[in-house]
Design goal:
This protein has 557 residues and is an alpha+beta fold. It has helices at residues 4-10, 24-36, 72-88, 110-123, 137-143, 165-178, 229-233, 306-319, 379-396, 427-436, 443-453, 457-466, 482-491, 497-504, 507-510, 519-530, 534-552, and strands spanning 14-20, 40-44, 59-60, 94-99, 102-103, 133-135, 152-162, 182-185, 187-194, 200-207, 213-223, 248-256, 265-269, 276-282, 285-289, 293-294, 330-338, 359-363, 369-373. It binds flavin-adenine dinucleotide.
C-alpha cells in the first residue's frame, strides 16, 4: 500500500484513466477501472465522500415514490442494485422496514398504496429483503405507539435497506487501491489539459496539504464531481452552453432516539406541502429528512438553515404529536446537494421533488467523460457505464492496454465483506475480533466495530493488542475507540481530524456535543501518527470546530 507521499510521486506516471472526484460515483469508477486492469488515478479535493456522498438519507432503496412519476426503469435498476449491494457489502447494507401510514384523508387510499407495494416487490422480482405486509391500526399502535393514530386506516410495512454512505464510498476507494489505483485526497483538479488538437490529455492538480502542483497525464479523464460538475466542465475545452445540473439541497436533522423512538422507518407527509419525508431509526439516534429546495450557491457552502430545521420538526411533530420536538432537541444537522440532471426544456418548470434521479454519461467534444445525476444506490452501474465509455474512447485512440479483465464488481465483495459469513450470522466473527484484541475488547465493542468495518474490524482490534491505550474511548461514555483513529490514518486515507470524526466514525452526527470534547485528543493522536507539528495540529482541530459551528449556525438565524 502506497503512503501519501509515494502516491503523490506516482502521479508522474502516465494513466489510462484519471478520475476527478472522490464521492461514491468517482470511487465506484476507480474500483471498476482498477479491477479491469486499467492504470487508474483518482483525485479528491477534500476527504472521500465529503461532498454529497456522506450527506444522503443513507438508504439503498428502489425509491417507492418514483413509481408515482412512472419511473419504472429507475426503480427496477435500483432494486436490482439493492440486491447486489446486499451481497457485496452485507455489513454495510442492511434491511430496514418502512411503515407507510395511511389516513382517512390521505392523498392515496390504502388499496392504491398496496397496489404500489405489489409493483415495488414485483419489480425486485420478489427478492426484496422481505415482501411487504399490511398492518392494521391496532398492529400499528403496538409497533409504533408514537405515531399519530387518529384517522389511521392501516399501514403497509415494506422493506428497503439502510447503509453508511461514507463508508460504502470509502470501501470502493480501498478496493480500487488494493487493485492498483492511486487515490489521493486533498488534491484538487485546477485545470484540464488539452493537446494541440484540443483533446483532453490530463489535468493540473494542486496538493492542498503541501501546496505542491503536478501535471497528471491520462488517456481518459472522468468528471465525477457531483454538484461541482458544471464548475469542472467550465475547465474543459468545450463547456456545454447550458449547465447540466439542477442541484437541489436536502437537509436532515438528528435527535436522540429517546425523544423519537422508532421500531421502523416511517414515511411522513409534510402538513404544509404534502411532500414525502422519512423518520429513520439510527441506533441511539433518529434522523428526519429531507428537504428538497433549489440551490444556486457554492456547493462547498451548503448548510441547514433555521427554516429547514423548523420545516423538518413540523413534519415530525405532525406524524408523532406526542414527541413535541423543539429546536434544542436537534443534536446535529447535515445538508447535501443532489446532483440532479437539469430537466429538458419542456419539463423546466417541474417541482424540485419531481426532477428525475436518472443519470447520464456525457462525452464532451474534447473527450472529457462526465457522469451526472444518479443515486447512491445505483453508483455501481453508473460506474460500469462510465468505464465502458472510457474503454471505447481508449480503443478508438488506440491506447487500450491489451489485456483487460472483467471487473466483476457485482460479485466481488467490498473489503469489509471478505470472509463475512454468508448467512450474516457473525457471532463467530465477534470471537475473532475479541481474540485479535488479546481479549482487551468486549463483545459489545466487537459488535460495534463489526457493524462498521465488517471483517476489517479484526485489523482494528489488532491495534489494541499491540497498544492497550487504543482501547480507550474517543469520547468518554461512547463506543468509538482510539484504535479507530489509528486505523483511519494508517489504512483509510484520513488526513484531518474532521475525516475521523465525521466520516470514519459518525461522532459528528451522534454525540450530543458533536465530539467537541474529544477534538484535542484526536488531534494529538493523529499528530503522533502523521508527525504533525503544533501548527498543523491546531489547524486541523480548528477545521473540525468550524465544521461543527457551520452545521450549528442555524441556531443563530
Ligand atoms: P459527491 O459525493 O458530491 O462527490 C463529488 C466529489 O467531487 C466531492 O467529494 C468533491 O469534493 C469532489 N470535487 C469537486 N470538484 C473537484 C475538483 N476540482 N478536484 C477534485 N475533487 C473535486 N441516493 C440514494 O441512493 N439513497 C438515498 O437515500 C439518497 N439520499 C439523498 C439525500 C440527499 C439529501 C441528497 C443530497 C442526496 C441523496 N441521494 C441518495 C443521492 C446520492 O447521495 C448522490 O447521488 C451521490 O452521493 C452523489 O455522489 P457523487 O460521487 O456523484 O457526488
Amino acid at each position: 500500500m502506497l503512503g501519501r507521499e509515494q502516491a503523490w510521486s506516482s502521479l508522474d506516471d502516465r494513466y489510462d484513466v484519471l478520475i476527478v472526484g472522490g464521492g461514491v460515483t468517482g470511487c465506484g469508477i476507480a474500483r471498476d477501472a482498477a479491477r479491469r486492469g486499467l492504470k487508474t488515478a483518482l483525485v479528491e479535493m477534500g476527504d472521500l465522500a465529503s461532498g454529497t456522498s456522506s450527506r444522503s438519507s443513507k438508504l439503498v432503496h428502489g425509491g417507492l415514490r418514483y413509481l408515482e412519476h412512472y419511473e419504472f426503469s429507475l426503480v427496477f435498476e435500483a432494486v436490482s442494485e439493492r440486491r447486489v449491494l446486499r451481497e457485496i457489502a452485507p455489513h454495510l447494507v442492511r434491511p430496514l422496514g418502512f411503515l407507510f401510514p395511511v389516513y382517512k384523508d390521505s392523498r392515496h387510499k390504502l388499496w392504491l398504496i398496496n397496489a404500489g407495494m405489489w409493483l415495488y416487490d414485483g419489480l425486485s422480482l420478489f427478492r426484496s429483503p422481505k415482501v411487504h405486509r399490511n398492518l392494521d391500526p391496532k398492529e400499528v399502535k403496538e409497533e409504533e405507539p408514537g405515531l399519530n393514530q387518529e384517522g389511521l386506516t392501516g399501514a403497509p410495512l415494506y422493506f428497503d435497506c439502510a447503509t453508511d454512505d461514507a463508508r460504502i464510498t470509502l470501501e470502493n476507494a480501498l478496493d480500487a487501491r488494493e487493485h492498483g489505483a492511486t487515490v489521493l485526497t486533498y488534491v484538487r483538479c485546477e485545470k484540464l489539459l488539452h493537446d494541440e488538437r484540443g483533446r483532453i490529455v490530463g489535468a493540473v492538480v494542486n496538493d492542498l496539504l503541501t501546496g505542491d502542483t503536478k501535471t497528471i497525464r491520462a488517456d481518459a479523464v472522468v468528471n465525477a464531481t457531483g454538484p461541482w460538475t458544471d464548475e469542472t466542465l467550465e475547465r474543459s475545452a468545450a463547456p456545454p452552453a447550458n449547465p447540466l445540473l439542477r442541484p437541489t439541497k436536502g437537509v436532515h436533522i438528528v435527535v436522540d432516539s429517546h425523544r423519537l423512538p422508532l421500531t421502523y422507518a416511517v414515511v411522513c407527509f409534510h402538513p404544509e406541502d404534502g411532500r414525502v419525508l422519512f423518520a429513520i431509526p439510527w441506533g441511539e439516534q433518529t434522523y428526519i429528512g429531507t428537504t428538497d429546495t433549489d440551490f444556486n450557491g457554492d456547493p462547498s457552502e451548503v448548510h441547514a438553515t433555521r427554516d429547514d430545521v423548523l420545516y423538518l420538526l413540523a413534519a415530525s411533530n405532525d406524524a408523532f404529536p406526542g414527541a413535541k420536538l423543539v429546536p434544542k432537541d436537534v443534536i446535529a444537522t447535515w445538508a447535501g446537494l443532489r446532483p440532479l440532471m437539469r430537466p429538458m426544456k419542456a419539463d423546466a418548470n417541474v417541482d424540485e421533488s419531481a426532477v428525475s434521479r436518472e443519470h447520464q454519461v456525457v462525452i464532451g467534444r474534447d473527450g472529457l467523460i462526465t457522469i451526472a445525476g444518479g443515486k447512491l444506490t445505483t453508483y455501481r452501474r453508473m460506474a460500469a457505464e462510465v468505464v465502458d465509455t472510457a474503454v471505447k474512447l481508449l480503443r478508438l485512440g488506440d491506447r487500450l492496454p491489451k489485456k483487460l479483465r472483467p471487473a466483476r464488481t457485482d460479485e466481488e465483495p467490498l473489503p469489509g465483506a471478505v470472509g463475512w459469513p454468508e448467512d450474516d450470522e457473525y457471532r463467530q466473527v465477534l470471537r475473532y475480533i475479541v481474540e485479535a484484541s488479546d481479549r482487551r475488547l468486549s463483545t459489545q465493542t466487537a459488535e460495534f466495530l463489526a457493524g462498521m468495518y465488517g471483517m476489517c474490524a479484526v485489523d482494528v482490534a489488532r491495534i489494541v493488542a499491540s497498544d492497550p491505550s487504543a482501547a480507550s474511548p474517543i469520547v468518554e461514555g461512547r463506543m468509538e475507540i482510539m484504535a479507530q483513529v489509528d486505523w483511519a490514518v494508517s489504512s483509510e486515507f484520513a488526513c484531518e481530524v474532521g475525516d475521523v470524526m465525521t466520516r470514519r466514525t459518525q461522532i459528528f452526527f451522534r454525540d450530543a456535543d458533536q465530539g467537541l470534547s474529544a477534538v484535542s485528543r484526536v488531534g494529538a493522536r493523529m499528530a503522533e501518527q502523521l508527525g504533525w507539528d503544533d501548527q498543523r495540529r491546531s489547524a486541523s482541530e480548528a477545521g473540525y470546530r468550524k465544521a461543527v459551528a457551520d452545521a450549528r449556525a442555524w441556531r443563530n438565524d
